[in-house]
Amino acid sequence: KPRVFSGVQPTGNLHLGNYLGAVSRWVPLQDQMETIFCVVDLHAITAGFPDRGELQKATREVTAAYIAAGIDPKKSIIFNQSQVREHAELAWIFNCVARIGWMNRMTQFKDKAGKNRENASLGLLAYPSLMAADILAYKATHVPVGDDQKQHLELTRDIAQKFNNDFADRIKDLGVGVPNPEPSPETPEELFFPITEPMIAGPATRIFSLRDGTKKMSKSDPSDLSRINLTDDADAISKKIRKAKTDPEALPSEVDGLKDRPEAENLVGIYAALAGKTKAEVLTEFGGQQFSAFKPALIDLAVEVLAPMTNEMRRLLADPAEIDAVLKAGAEAASAIAEPILKDVRKVIGFLDVR
Ligand code: AQP
C-alpha cells in the first residue's frame, strides 16, 4: 500500500518555498494514500544547537503551519521526530550501511559546511542518513519534497538497495521480506525496504529568493526581504513583493520567453503555484503586461491564500495544548508503525534480544 512520508525542519522562518514546494502539495495526498508528516527536530540540530525555547517554539510553529495549510490530524499522522526513538536508531544502522564517499558528494553538505568542512558537525555530514531512516522506518514508498532534496532521496534509494542486497539471504531466511516487484539479475528476489519514489513536480519545486532569482528562497538568508514568511501579515507580503527584484521587460506570452529571466520566471512560478495554474496559463493572462501591473495581482493572490493560514496559525499558537495533543497522538501512531519494522531490522542485523 502506498505510504507517504515527508517533513520540515523546525529552524524558524517557515517560508513560501516550504509551503509551495512541500506542505501545500501534501494536502491532496491525504485522500489518496496513508500519510505521515514529521517535524524533523533531530535534523534541526545538525547546523548548531538552537536555544531550547526557540527549538520548542519552532516545532509548534511548523506543526501549526501543517494544520493551517490543511493537513488534517484525523487523516494524517503528525509528530515530531525526536519523540520516536526508531529514527535515531535506524539512522545509526544506516551510518554503517552508507559510505563516507556518498555523504561527501552531497551538495547540501558542501553548501552548508562551507569552506571549513573539518569543523562541520558529524551530524551535518550524516544528515542524509537520518533522512533515509525517517522514510524507511515506516517503509514509506513516496516522498513529496522540493527539488533541493532530490540528491538526498537518491541516497535513500541507494541505502535501501544496499541493505536489501547485503542482507538478502538473511531477509529471506527470516521471512521478513516481500517479493521484489521489479525483479532483475542485480536485485534480490525479496526486499526488506521499498525503493522510495520521489514526488517532485509542479510549478513550485524550487522557489527562488525575491532578491536574487538564482538563489533558493531559504530560511537562513540574512535578508528577510528575500522570502515571504508564513507569519508575514498583508503589509509585509505587499512590501516584499513590491520590492522584489525584476527586469525592465514586460512579461512574455509564452513560457520560452522566461528563459534567462530568473526573477520573472520565479514570480510567474509563484503566481502559478498559488493559483493552482500552470506557468503557461499565467502567461496567457499576463503576457505583454509590465511588472507594475503583475505585482499588484500577485500581492492580492498571495494575501488571499496566505492570510487565512496565518490567522489559523496564530489561533493555534495562542494555546499550544491543541498542538501538543496532536503531536502526542501522532508520536504514538508513528511508533506503532516503526517499532515492528525496527524489531525486524534488529533481527536481520543479529543483535541479541534478551528482553
Ligand atoms: N525554495 C524552496 N522551494 C521549494 N521547496 C523548498 N523547500 C525548502 N526550500 C524550498 C522544501 O521544503 C521542505 C522542508 O525543507 P527543510 O525544512 O529541510 O528546509 P530547508 O531546505 O532547510 O529550508 P531552507 O529554507 O533551505 O533552510 P536553510 O536556509 O537552512 O537551507 C523540503 O521538502 C524542501 O525541499
From TrEMBL:
> A single GO molecular function, which one?
tryptophan-tRNA ligase activity
Recorded catalytic reaction(s): these are: tRNA(Trp) + L-tryptophan + ATP = L-tryptophyl-tRNA(Trp) + AMP + diphosphate + H(+)
Q: Which GO terms describe its biological process?
A: tryptophanyl-tRNA aminoacylation
Q: What does the entry list as the binding residues for ATP? A: Q9, P10, T11, G17, N18, G146, D147, D148, I207, K216, M217, S218, K219, S220
Q: Does the keyword Cytoplasm apply?
A: yes
Motif 'KMSKS' region extends across 216-220
The EC number(s) this enzyme carries? 6.1.1.2
Q: Where is this motif: 'HIGH' region?
A: 10-18
NCBIfam families cross-referenced by the UniProt entry: trpS
Q: How does it assemble?
A: Homodimer.
Protein name, UniProt field = Tryptophan--tRNA ligase
Record organism = Roseibium suaedae
The organism that produces this protein has a lineage beginning with: Bacteria, Pseudomonadati, Pseudomonadota, Alphaproteobacteria, Hyphomicrobiales
